[in-house]
Amino acid sequence: GEARLHCWGEEAGGRSAPPRGNFEALAVGDASACARAPDRRLACWGDGGQGRTMPPPIAVDSFALGDRHGCALAERRVICWGDNSRGQSDAPDDEHLHLSAGHRHTCGIRVGGAVDCWGDAAGARLDAPEGVYVDLSAGQEHSCALALDGDLRCWGVAGMDGRLDAPGVEVLGI
Fold this sequence. Notes:
By secondary structure, this protein is an all-beta fold. It is globular and about 45 Å long. The chain has no helices and 12 strands. The strands form 4 sheets. It has a 3-stranded antiparallel sheet with strand order 1-2-3, with no helix packed on it. The chain is 0% helix and 37% strand. The chain starts with 24 loop residues before the first strand and ends in an 18-residue tail after the last strand. The model has no long low-confidence stretch (mean pLDDT 86).
């Protein structure tokens, strides 16, 4: 049978009106969403401003959506689309294994395990600590990555809300 997408919430800009079809992966950004079909191509819907619902027409391995941009991995190469006002769609040429898109920045784990980030540099969002990482997640103004040794490291806007205070326990995944 057909695996259908179901969306709910604010309908503005078609956000709650996904395409019909069979899909195997999903990512949601601020005002848009994308799903990957069995042929590995993306279908995106929602607020199409800044080109955020116009991914490249190629097969992708994985993908992530930020506030007004998206990035995907295609054979370890990063391809981004949408808003680039802060450089968040200026993908590096290095090969990557994993991506996560934040508000106006994107981070990736390169082959070899190092993290690099691009986009809005405010608040040290792009200052990933050195190390070998196995997973990462980018937020609105900060990012966290799981090191090979199980240590969780966060960077970006510190604020007073504790968002950079990683727990002092071994983390098995984020």
